[in-house]
Amino acid sequence: MAEPLKVGLAGLGTVGTSVVHLLERGRAKLLARCGRPIEVVAVSARSRSKKRNIDLKKYRWFSDPVALARDPSIDVFVELMGGAGDPAKRAVQTALASGKAVVTANKALLARHGQKLAALAERKKVALNFEASVGGGIPIIKTLREGLNGDAFTRIYGILNGTCNYILSRMEQDRLAFDECLRDAQRLGYAEADPSFDVEGHDTAQKLSILASLAFGTKLDPNAIYVEGISSIALADLDAAADLGYRIKLLGVAVKTEGGIEQRVHPTMVPKESAIAQVMGVTNAVTIDAEGLNPITLVGPGAGGLATASAVVSDIADIACGVRAAPFGRPAARMTAIRKAPMQHHEGGYYIRLLARDRPGTAATIARRLAQQNISLESIVQRHGIAGQGSPPPSGRSGEPVPVIMITYATSEDAVRRALAAVRRDRVISGRPQVIRIEKN
Amino acid sequence: MAEPLKVGLAGLGTVGTSVVHLLERGRAKLLARCGRPIEVVAVSARSRSKKRNIDLKKYRWFSDPVALARDPSIDVFVELMGGAGDPAKRAVQTALASGKAVVTANKALLARHGQKLAALAERKKVALNFEASVGGGIPIIKTLREGLNGDAFTRIYGILNGTCNYILSRMEQDRLAFDECLRDAQRLGYAEADPSFDVEGHDTAQKLSILASLAFGTKLDPNAIYVEGISSIALADLDAAADLGYRIKLLGVAVKTEGGIEQRVHPTMVPKESAIAQVMGVTNAVTIDAEGLNPITLVGPGAGGLATASAVVSDIADIACGVRAAPFGRPAARMTAIRKAPMQHHEGGYYIRLLARDRPGTAATIARRLAQQNISLESIVQRHGIAGQGSPPPSGRSGEPVPVIMITYATSEDAVRRALAAVRRDRVISGRPQVIRIEKN
Question: What is the ipTM of this complex?
Fold first, then answer.
């Protein structure tokens, strides 16, 4: 039998312990697959005494993950500690520099230092695999890196954060407010005690920067991404979306435009009958558009110990089988600097929800401001009261503000921002307007 | 610059010419990807004079594909001729035996001779790639071969034939009969002049045998598959399915059971809200179930020159990048013989549509025959007339036969067959009963 592939594993949380179990349970199958057994020989974690359902005595213990990363007894270093900084960063660098393959689920580290790490892996001719960093159990990294490389990708977008999708799904299905759904998500372990990283879109942004790099061959730049979270989404928006034939999802979108590559994370109205709109709960989904091709959509579990662990194990198995691709699909030196398309130049349809003051002239003022920016409306809905565009203003009573919902034809972000700033200056609306971009499939 | 990867291409139909175009158009991108240019140097096809939108003068011409396959000027032989026999078979064998990598879209060849060809590729340490053979532009081969290999797969099923899905979608959406939709499919180029290979399920069966082998590590055996096509599906079935919360799709299903691996192709009722039910038209989709994981679904274009060509090019690019995996995901010698679970032992729910003779005792007879086989009914619908189970038979008039639709709880194929044979012997129904299996997600 061939020499076993010896694995050192740093980080023994849910994913780490699941990896140990999967490798043990799948031992015979993995051996059959690559003709070479895979063995965990050493582990590292913050605490040795913490209760875990694995027998630590079977593995050498390292209190320092960096020491494990350079230990000559291992062939592969599996990093499941997380975080863009040390010790994860130093451990991964050390492992690669020592000529060891690395498998990691650490999206933060990759989004920030992926470029340098890929170059180092290339120099040392070792694998740097990170299937688990995006989309949990969905094989999206491999698909972009190797699976479709004859294509000219034009757009990649998806639901990359299970927490947000769970919250939006619950809000819609159970008619609950954002805060209530967030609390439920926390209770069920879908959201952290500090949920802002998830709900404000930063987790999605890190993942998107990895996907964009793979799809377009560009250098990673998490700062090139426009980010907006879901905490401002109200039930009124979900209801209006449903009425208009849409659903609201937090999407990460990377798209090739004439002005460069546009990368953005924001709540998005997607057509109700699209594949992506069907994805409810903690499930993730990614759609890939390429020139002249119908879109390809991958749907599956976005998180969860087992799904993530299964992606880690497939990365380890690739190493055991001798499959090695460039980490970001092309030699690091050939990854191009990203030409960032500024968000103000984004073009598309917009959903706008305003609270209009219930007095003469309001509708006319709003209509004028939109017209000044050449924004045409596909539809306008005013729930209580009357005044559609052009219809007479309601009688003198200074009642409650009236919700007005508008869908624009394709226009630019810039135009929408200017028009709404003018409307606010005109003092014909109360509060901030709600703006949600529409993504067509 | 590194030596170019030299490609010899046999078969210049829609897919072949698209491959040539894609390789030219994607030249810079592919070079960036693998640091090595990819060049078509020689081609072969049945006729040299046929009009094609490529300039044949740029390539060496071989009238004999086998001569091309062994020509020292090429590194990779791309086989797009099709057919399980010669010249495709001999050409692929010759190429592999000459130490050349092979890329093929030939599902028939793989389903029949995949085992031997994989062993030969392995012996010669060359790649044998066939992403285009199943699911066109969907990267299902790579996903099963490399992407998820930590997992214990339990079931894989999908819509693998665009022609059938187009016909069933049109029947449902436009309320047309099977024959009409088939004629339209032929007119649009979605179906062959002799459509039986597609509509009788044989195309799906060949693809399923490839997927089953990849998923379960078993030897290919297209004869181990139970096959039933869609030509008997009537509008009445689609209507009944819709009423009951289902859609009818032609599925290929491979599932691990206690009795072995069950492989079957047949019209299937799938829950209307499942991912697979949303897939309409010529689109393909595959769902993968693994122990303890939520299912993963891949959706995309199942056919079309460009989608298929794009899969071929990604296979060629893998070779240029030096990515090589075992053709069926594990060494050929480790692929196990398939333990075939006989169709009679299949267990699941059934949809049964009968034309019951409109006379006293019919309902009671049918009910008794089902009960004798321990089949319980989840629902029964009788459209015209009265007699539900137990209600009094209609009055003596010997009118038209009455359609009766039943959904059973989980039972066995054997029980259903016996019960229906008995009912036919009892002469209480007219014509053959329609039976459609239900697949739960």
Answer: 0.84
| A5 contact B CB<8A | no
CATH at residue B25:
3.40.50.720
CB contact under 8 A, A33 and B137: no
> Could you give phi then psi for residue B299, rounded to 5 degrees?
-125, 135
Pairing assessment for the beta strands A402-408 and A377-382 based on DSSP bridges: antiparallel
Residues of B annotated as catalytic are 207
Q: A387 CA to chain B: closest CA distance, Å? A: 39
Contact A292 B311 (CB under 8 A): no
Residues B58 and B123 in one domain: yes
- Whole-number pLDDT of residue A388: 41
| Nearest neighbour of B301 by CB, restricted to A283, A294, A300 | A294
- A207 classed as catalytic: yes
Residues B164 and B290 in one domain: yes
pTM of the model: 0.88
What letter does residue A145 receive in the DSSP assignment? Answer: I
Interface test with B, best of A1, A284, A296, A312 (most B CBs within 10 A): A296
Instruction: Report the candidate in A109, A161, A353, A355 with the shortest Cα–Cα distance to residue A241.
Output: A353
- Identity (one letter) of the amino acid at A154? T
Residue A302 is predicted with a pLDDT of 84
User: Which pLDDT score is estimated for A383?
Assistant: 66
User: What was the pLDDT predicted at B370?
Assistant: 95
Asked if A4 and A44 touch (Cβ cutoff 8 Å), the reply is no
Return the structure tokens found at B259. 């009795």
* Domains in chain A, number: 3
Q: Is residue B339 a part of any domain in this protein?
A: no
Residue B138's closest chain A neighbor by CA?
A296
Task: Check whether residue A39 and residue A165 sit in a common domain.
Answer: no
Both structure tokens of B329: 């995901």
Do the Cβ atoms of A298 and B294 come within 8 Å? Answer: no
Judgement on whether residues A16 and A133 belong to the same structural domain of the protein? yes
Query: Is A426 inside a domain boundary?
Result: yes
State the residue range of the domain holding B58: 5-137+307-334
Residues of B in Cβ contact (< 8 Å) with A25: 152
Distance CA A347, CA A412 (A): 4
pLDDT of residue A400: 81
**Phi/psi class of residue A210: alpha, beta or left (left: φ > 0; alpha: ψ in -120 to 50)?**
alpha
Nearest-CA neighbor of A327 among A75, A109, A22, A114?
Answer: A114
A-chain residues within 8 Å CB-CB of B26? 150-152
Residues B34 and B128 in one domain: yes
Instruction: Identify the segments of chain A with pLDDT beneath 70.
Output: 1, 149-151, 383-398
A397 touches chain B (CB under 8 A): no
Helical segments of A26-87, H only:
27-34, 65-69
pLDDT in tens, A409-424: 999 999 999 999 999 9
- Residue B208 belongs to a domain with what CATH number? 3.30.360.10
DSSP B112: H
CB contact under 8 Å between A278 and B278, yes or no, is yes
Q: Which of B298, B316, B330 sits opposite A298 (nearest CB)?
A: B298
Residue ranges of chain B whose pLDDT lies below 50: 385-396
Among A247, A277, A300, identify where a domain stops: A300
pLDDT at B398: 52
Which of these is catalytic: A89, A207, A219, A256?
A207
pLDDT digits (tens, 9 = 90+) for B358-410: 888 888 899 999 999 999 999 988 865 444 444 444 444 557 888 999 999 99
Q: Are residues A330 and B34, on separate chains, in Cβ contact within 8 Å?
A: yes
- Contact residues, chain A, for B137 at CB < 8 Å: 148, 293-294, 296
What residues of A are in contact with residue B146 (Cβ under 8 Å)?
Answer: 142, 314, 317-318, 321, 323
Binary contact (B298, A294; C-beta < 8 A): no
Say yes or no: A92 and A181 in one domain: no
Contact call for residues A237 and A248 (beta carbons, < 8 A): yes
Contact B181, B170 (CB under 8 A): yes
